[in-house]
Design a protein that fits this description.
This protein is an alpha/beta fold. The protein has three domains: 93 residues, no CATH class; 208 residues, P-loop containing nucleotide triphosphate hydrolases (Rossmann fold), CATH 3.40.50.300; 88 residues, Arc Repressor Mutant, subunit A (Orthogonal Bundle), CATH 1.10.10. Helices cover 48% and strands 12% of the residues. The protein contains 16 helices and eleven strands. Strands 3-6-7-2-8 form a five-stranded parallel β-sheet, with helices on both faces. The chain has a two-stranded antiparallel ribbon with strand order 1-9. A two-stranded antiparallel sheet has the order 4-5. β10 and β11 form a beta hairpin. α4 crosses α5. The N and C termini lie close together (12 Å). It binds adenosine-5'-triphosphate and magnesium ion.
Length: 431
């Protein structure tokens, strides 16, 4: 840390409490400076240039990679390019039935279209008034709903009718089209037992209207389970979407994410190169962890400033411990003892941060003399359960990965604290 303010009593520097901590670890909280993501934004801009929608976008990645804030960043870009923007967070309840999905789409559309007047209607008056009252008919929710209800056929037919009707008016208003942006789209599922197929419905409807030239584009964000789920529901989904997989920030992008909020905010303190390296080491470029560690470090500095002392180094060990209890412990607590044994084995595999196979786990288990054996069918079953619990996921090539960033290093730290072996080298070093 270096102190940039003059804090002598003759020239008291700015009071430290005036400088609010700029870092924002939290789901969907816009960071003080959005680092990197240049290619992803360019890709979105490319899709916005389509006259005829051939490609929609999926923005996917592990928890805390920045999907929600990037989606939010896309919004003004789309609007500046002449598009309208509809959409929200898809919560579980909304995705249960086809009707719910239809209501969701109509509601989101009506927000954009309720001011579009499509005609006049006369209300006959009884009494002295000679002229009937005239009311304007707009594409408000009741109008959209009435068109929907009066269209014969299945939910898909009704929805297509409404979307095509709206498309005609959107074009007249001079807009290029509408972006339908849905966050947490992995929560959308078909339910065979209940005969409800909202996920397939969404894909069918958009594929059909896009083929007819309706300029409505889907942008779905979600965990890495999203795309395989879509392809399983409808194989054509593979051709319908451009999948953008969010990776951790590079070292230089992480540096920007750490330093820009400080320099832009003209804070009285700043990170030294050594501190930046330390944050990089703990966060490995994962945006949520960058925000988390920086927020903690900033708080510590402010406390030192207030008490007039100068901190020598970042208390990395303590911050990592706090992160473990805030972020990882709850997830770890949900795993059974046996599942934890399996996760420990996975965490010790050389390629655990990328992907691993059932075979690798079985081999490692037999080499490391586990108290109880792990057969491949057992490992398969257990991995399926762990995937349901959101701790790992199976990719499209049948390999597995941790679904939570940096879960492997956490497990190794945890093992060390529990008295077992293995710590990832270099991960917990203080500067
Ligand atoms: N490009 C970035 N630069 C700096 N910080 C970022 C960046 N992207 C995201 N963040 C920060 O990371 C955290 C997580 O972001 P966000 O909630 O968008 O992730 P997410 O992928 O949507 O997570 P989840 O899967 O849990 O919904 C937030 O605190 C956000 O401010
Ligand atoms: Mg999110």
């Amino acid at each position: 840390m270096h102190n940039k303010g003059d804090r002598s009593s003759d020239h008291p520097g700015p009071r430290p409490d005036v400088f609010k901590n700029p870092f924002r670890p939290g789901a969907g909280h816009m960071p003080p400076y959005l680092a990197g993501r240049v290619d992803e934004i360019r890709e979105f801009q490319r899709l916005l240039r389509q006259d005829h929608i051939l490609e929609n976008m999926i923005l996917t990645g592990l928890r805390g990679l920045g999907k929600t804030v990037l989606l939010e960043t896309f919004n003004p870009i789309a609007i500046q390019s002449g598009w309208l923007w509809a959409g929200t967070d898809l919560s579980e309840s909304m995705s249960v039935s086809e009707d719910n999905l239809a209501t969701r789409l109509l509601t989101d559309l009506a927000i954009l279209t309720s001011n579009i007047v499509i005609g006049q209607a006369e209300i006959p008056r009884i009494g002295l008034k000679s002229k009937p009252d005239e009311i304007r008919i707009s594409l408000s929710y009741p109008t959209l709903r009435a068109v929907y209800d009066e269209t014969p056929g299945l939910v898909a037919d009704k929805l297509k009718r409404v979307l095509e009707l709206v498309a005609g008016h959107i074009r007249k208003s001079g807009h290029r089209g509408i972006v339908f942006a849905y966050d947490e789209a992995q929560t959308l599922s078909d339910h065979k037992a209940k005969e409800q197929y909202p996920l397939s419905l969404l894909l069918d409807v958009f594929q059909s209207i896009q083929r007819k030239g309706v300029p409505f584009m889907l942008v779905l964000t979600g965990l890495p389970t999203l795309f395989p789920k879509l392809v399983e529901a409808r194989t054509f989904a593979e051709r319908m979407f451009r999948v953008v997989f969010l990776e951790p920030l590079s070292r230089s992008e992480s540096r920007e994410a750490i330093l820009r909020p400080i320099s832009d905010g003209k804070c009285p303190v700043s990170f030294t190169d050594l501190s930046v390296d330390a944050v990089w080491k703990v966060s490995a470029g994962y945006p949520y962890f960058i925000q988390y560690v920086c927020r903690e470090v900033f708080d510590v500095w402010m406390q030192h400033l207030e008490s007039g002392s100068t901190p020598k180094s970042i208390p990395l060990e303590e911050i990592t411990r706090k992160l473990d209890s805030d972020f990882f412990a709850g997830r770890w607590a949900r795993a059974t003892d046996r599942q934890r044994d399996l996760l420990r084995i996975a965490a010790r595999l050389k390629n655990s941060e990328a992907e691993f196979t059932v075979q690798e786990i079985v081999e490692h288990a037999s080499n490391s003399a586990q108290p109880k054996p792990f057969s491949s069918s057992l490992v398969n079953q257990m991995l399926a359960k762990l995937a349901e619990a959101g701790l790992i996921y199976k990719n499209r090539h049948g390999k597995y990965s941790f679904a939570v960033p940096l879960l492997g290093p956490f497990i190794l730290r945890q093992s060390r604290r529990d008295g077992s072996q293995a710590v990832l080298p270099g991960f917990e070093q203080s500067e």
